[in-house]
Amino acid sequence: xxxxxxxxxxxxxxxxxxxxxxxxxxxxxxxxxxxxxxxxxxxxxxxxxxxxxxxxxxxxxxxxxxxxxxxxxxxxxxxxxxxxxxxxxxxxxxxxxxxxxxxxxxxxxxxxxxxxxxxxxxxxxxxxxxxxxxxxxxxxxxxxxxxxxxxxxxxxxxxxxxxxxxxxxxxxxxxxxxxxxxxxxxxxxxxxxxxxxxxxxxxxxxxxxxxxxxxxxxxxxxxxxxxxxxxxxxxxxxxxxxxxxxxxxxxxxxxxxxxxxxxxxxxxxxxxxxxxxxxxxxxxxxxxxxxxxxxxxxxxxxxxxxxxxxxxxxxxxxxxxxxxxxxxxxxxxxxxxxxxxxxxxxxxxxxxxxxxxxxxxxxxxxxxxxxxxxxxxxxxxxxxxxxxxxxxxxxxxxxxxxxxxxxxx
Amino acid sequence: xxxxxxxxxxxxxxxxxxxxxxxxxxxxxxxxxxxxxxxxxxxxxxxxxxxxxxxxxxxxxxxxxxxxxxxxxxxxxxxxxxxxxxxxxxxxxxxxxxxxxxxxxxxxxxxxxxxxxxxxxxxxxxxxxxxxxxxxxxxxxxxxxxxxxxxxxxxxxxxxxxxxxxxxxxxxxxxxxxxxxxxxxxxxxxxxxxxxxxxxxxxxxxxxxxxxxxxxxxxxxxxxxxxxxxxxxxxxxxxxxxxxxxxxxxxxxxxxxxxxxxxxxxxxxxxxxxxxxxxxxxxxxxxxxxxxxxxxxxxxxxxxxxxxxxxxxxxxxxxxxxxxxxxxxxxxxxxxxxxxxxxxxxxxxxxxxxxxxxxxxxxxxxxxxxxxxxxxxxxxxxxxxxxxxxxxxxxxxxxxxxxxxxxxx
Lengths: 409, 409
Prior knowledge:
Two copies of one chain form a homodimer. Chain A is of the alpha/beta class. Helix content of chain A is 34%, strand content 27%.
């Protein structure tokens, strides 16, 4: 029995037929008598956006069941073309759609979760020597409707298949060379990390890195090592796994407690001021937002019974106007003082598993930002992360100063 | 139980979102409490050609199994978009891919034939009041691979579904207003036929009209009336059915024996000269052509045992060079005298069920063409058709003169 490696190629690595041929050559080079390859592909380039745009021309609120069947075609195109390219260079291979690959999901169209994978269709192809190319981002629910997995879907497909097949590892090929100590576009001297833990990656995925948290969670649950690297060169990428220490030098006195600075932008902050506090206030506010499909990001509320309170939260800026509509209605219903909006906000985070053992990181972060004259709008923390909401214009200066302060250079 | 009408919309009727919305409005207008609608759609505009082109960039001879899965996406896009458009104008509807609609085929990828239709998925949707939009041109074989039906596939899907559902009729909406007594681009005063028999339509489909013979054969076998009309206006189209006489005036002394002049072009004629005749000669020639996927059109061979013979046949001009390669090899193997090629040929046919009762039609056809100085390269006939191979440059003059000679004006 040969080893199995699962690979995943993103849309930017498959933007035209030339790029698809290059991916086919990479897959072919990875394949050998000892190593079986299953490759999961995203839709070519901006196909998914183009299909979504066509749908919205015909229907402002397209039915999700229809939209999922429509969007699933993007990966069918890329997986069949990749298979044809492999066959053209002499490698036996076969494409499988999500449902052909035995990927069963619940029926939450547009954000379905994988319930089960029947590995026999994939194993049947591997056993006859085929490289298997799988359409990412999609599956089938019990009633034989096609579903899509939503954001980060193809990564999730790849990790889930790697877990189901008990693969050696899951390789995510993308347009960056791996995971960095900070976004190289903001901090040009940011360092590529050769190793990172699932927990750190999970925080970074939520706070700026290009992977979706759900695929990291899945990998952590099933202990699937993930290797993130560029599809455009053969430089070493980043391995995300549990046993960090086994791969590190035995003497490690100077191990850094902070691994990286994560950055994201495109947030709008809303504050509902002087809201008379009462039981169930939070649900009265967040329920109507959820009904409008607005995903609330960070929430800050410090309520005392019987008094009025200010309630602050952030949303993705694309939801700004929808959120404002909801709040203007709520202002009257809840007898609030007013609605304050702050646009163009960004989040900057310091992440590292070492942080849970020692204190002082928050203070260093706040001092460093203050020394650059950067105002902090909101603070949230996890065990291994501290996040500050700041003005987007301050993001680059903030990232550089924190990268230096935490000695990541 | 309401009546069921099956409609089919071709790619030129669905070339962009505006056209799709217009189709949705037509479907909506046909639908009522008494009439259930099942609509079969082709891929938008030139999608199938574009996908085929992408495939050929990666693989000169793409695997048919992969190509079928790739091409099937074109109709998935158009059927989901049409459904969304119907929902946007307030009509409950649901899309079904070929396999979701229960269309089972054999496994001859690229030219699969429908083996069975499980009508329950369609009936389930009709029973809850949905308009059902089905992806044409595709099905599924036993092993759960997607297949496509080849040329004329969506027409075949529509007729087969109409037969399975015992529908009132199958309406084919296209970019022409119906079936004409001759191609209106050649004979501007050609008349639209309100009625035509399956047999006549079958000959015309093979010899110039826009429908594929297989869908006509299927309709004839299951006695499904087909109505061909424009998707761009509401002018009366052509009804293709069996009981012609019941729809015609009772006294019919002057019923025309010839219904129409059919025209096609794009043929190349090959003649292999002075071939020593022997048993199995035809198969020695046509077997290698078939292996190269060259479809031979008309064949003329008049062989006497023991002598040499000339063997003539026509092919679609796109296969010209492939055919020449095969014949150059065969010339040596078979010790033939030479290969003669005639390009830019066309076929002109006189069609009518009345022809089988009387003679003299062939003579009138040949005399008419001769009077215009048109040379005849090859003659083939069926019970209700006479076809002459002529120079493509003579097609218009030939069609006009025959239209007049057979009193179709």
